[in-house]
Design goal:
Layout (H helix, E strand, L loop, with lengths): L5 E5 L6 H12 L2 E4 H14 L7 H9 L3 E6 L2 E6 L2 E2 L7 H10 L3 H12 L7 E5 L2 H5 L5 E6 L2 H14 L6 H17 L12 E4 L5 H12 L1
Parallel strand pairs: 1-6, 1-7, 2-6, 7-8
Antiparallel strand pairs: 3-4, 4-5
This protein binds 2'-deoxycytidine-5'-monophosphate.
The site of 2'-deoxycytidine-5'-monophosphate has 15 residues, from helix 2, helix 4 and helix 8.
Length: 220
């Protein structure tokens, strides 16, 4: 246990938790952990090394020795795997779905637990994911659960992908997001759920500035 403060932001895919977490980290001057990026980069590494996405043991071994580095450049997170910049590659829908599959394996989650906790460094940590407030940092000082309807989230994802020059289809995105929600919520270990002591916020009708303001008030 440590007294270094932590703000956890959990929620489903596309709820805006990543943007909120990065804005809060920059506002507070705290470190930032994007735990989803860790599962995404692991899935990417598994595909690169031709490991099937359902085989727990080799995946957990890979997770334990994963050569990954996160660099926060302003509000832009760079992700390096084995010396290669994979920041863009791991953001595709395909990478997100692959991440959700490896993340359902208990041995993989166990192998990544301490690596995530090591990000708790002074002066503080802001982190986003699915189980940050429930499993990884149950003693966090501030916990937020950010949600929004599947349609709103798919619309945001569509816009984000378009801005990155990645083509997608809105109805496919709604179906993929709903399928991913089901897998993330229904799994036996560390399912997506709000911690009992989390502030639950529905961002369907709120812009990111309003969400940031609400959370700044909460942390203050
Ligand atoms: O937040 P994201 O969309 O980048 O996460 C990708 C996948 O990783 C998500 O579908 C589920 C998994 N994940 C998880 O199981 N636990 C976390 N703390 C973060 C992500």
């Amino acid at each position: 246990m440590t007294d270094i403060p932590v703000l956890t932001i959990d929620g489903p895919s596309g709820s805006g938790k990543g943007t909120l977490a990065q804005r809060m980290a920059s506002h507070l001057g705290w470190h930032y952990l994007d735990s989803g990026a860790l599962y995404r980069v692991l899935a990417h590494a598994a595909l690169k090394h031709q490991l099937p996405l359902h085989e727990a043991e080799p995946l957990a071994e890979l997770a334990a020795r994963l050569d990954v580095e996160f660099l926060l450049e302003g509000q832009h997170l760079q992700v390096w795997l084995e010396g290669e910049d994979v920041s863009l590659k791991i953001r595709s829908e395909q990478a997100g779905n692959a991440a959700s599959k490896v993340a359902a394996l208990p041995a993989v989650r166990a192998a990544l637990l301490q690596r995530q906790r090591n990000f708790r460094q002074a002066p503080g940590l802001v982190t986003d994911g699915r189980d940050m407030g429930t499993v990884v940092f149950p003693d966090a000082n501030f916990k937020v659960f950010l949600t929004a309807s599947a349609e709103v989230r798919a619309g945001r994802r569509y816009k984000q992908l378009k801005e990155k020059g990645i083509e997608s289809n809105l109805s496919d995105l709604i179906a993929e997001i709903s399928e991913r929600d089901q897998r993330d919520t229904g799994r036996s270990v560390a399912p997506l759920q709000a911690a009992n002591d989390a502030l639950v916020l529905d961002s369907s009708a709120l812009g990111i500035d309003a969400v940031v303001k609400t959370i700044c008030d909460y942390v203050r």
